[in-house]
Amino acid sequence: MLDVESSPDLSRMPTETDNEGAEGQNSYITTASSYMAPSLSLPHEIVFVAVVCCAQLTTQAGLSQSLSIIHIIGEHYGLREKPGDLAWFMAAYSLTVGPRDLFGHKRMLITGYLWFAVWSMVAGLAVYSNVILFNFARALQGIGPSILLPNGLAILGSTYPPGPRKHMVFAIFGAMAPGGGVLGSTIAALFALTWWPWAFWSLAIACLFLAGLATLTDGRYRRSVWFWGKLKQVDWGGAITGVTALVLINIAWNQAPIVGWQTPYVYVLLILAVLLIPLRVASVPLLPLNALKSSDIGFVLGCLSCGWGCFGISAWISPVAVSGALAAIATGYLLSKIGPAWTMVAALSAFLAGIILVATMPVDQIYWGQAFVCVLVITWGMDMSSPASTVILSDAVSKRHQGIAASFVNTVVNYSISLALGFAGTAEVHLNNGGKTKGDMLKGYRAALYVGVGLAGLGWLLNLMFFWHDYRRRAQEGRREGEEVEGEKRT
What we know:
74% of the residues lie in helices and 0% in strands. The chain is an all-alpha fold. It has two domains: 8-13 and 30-235 and 282-482, Growth Hormone, Chain: A (Up-down Bundle); 236-281. The radius of gyration is 23 Å and the shape is globular. Keywords: Membrane, Transmembrane, Transmembrane helix.
């Protein structure tokens, strides 16, 4: 058993001072001594990082587990010939993956694993019910990763001081995405040979095991007045209306390919979503506005959205785990050597190259042609963009807000995947002539993939703008420093 007393305290506790009052309850130790990683032994650090990184592994496994057996599940529910309905098996899961970082990272990490386990179990039990329960369970299953990912990233961010080691840990966390995708698809396909619900039940068992292991490796949790003070500061009205607006937009875009845009409730949902978007700013926002005013943040989130949106439109299930491991090692090195801006350029280039390869692939081409190259290239986009974006956003905020900043990256990634599926589905159903012939079906598939090419291209252009802006800013800072040095010499 690991030494619990020496484990890092991951519960995001405020500094303990007697005279700071209410304001002091929201302050945090930000000195170098507050980082726990240097005090961990190597075996303890390995287990600690493994438990946290499994948050990413299980998240992507949960997303991809329905992909490899999507037609088997669809056939069970009588939906095999309805691709629009099948898309909800994945979109429902990504829909609810968003920010859940309010009440302390340690407890929320364990809660996330437990929630993930419960609704994975329900998704499997939906075999005895109908597709409505299955999609409902998948949507609630996605809340588990929405709790796990931001808190896992915040734990790593608050445990490791800035430097190459932190960059490498973030890269390893990102590398779990392709590995988890392959693992989830493979296990689901194997269980489908016997009975597909076991794909979800096995994930539930794994999450329960990780919850128990996280309890042993995490630090002690202490209840404080800060918890209740934070609860009172939450803008519940804005949270409900804002999240509802995002959900309605997603539902409208993913339902439109199924029932058509001419159906009244589709555009009514979009109108309601616009009306529900909050127009006022909370007095105590989860993420400080000054962190979002930087143009760099806008560029980064735009690039991330376009890149991962194109990834969600096409499915790559092959040796991405090996390529992902190599990409993670390279990313951890590149972040320290060339910085996040160049890393994002390389990531969006990989996204664009990968989607072009699969969109232009001939029907009768062997797998070892463009398809194999695509799965090797696209992984670099995943494993370079996510760590680089997380580093950029975490550097823009204080230590206490790193969990929310990480959840922004997580939200953009998963919401983009879900929403882009709706974009692609709309293009497919409007250009495939009802899918009456194989030629029509191919036309629809290519239309959907070309939407991905457009998103990747847009992200690449935004990335070039971000790089140019970063280059000019650094040049201006260098000139100012030179002028200051010259002025000091004259005086």
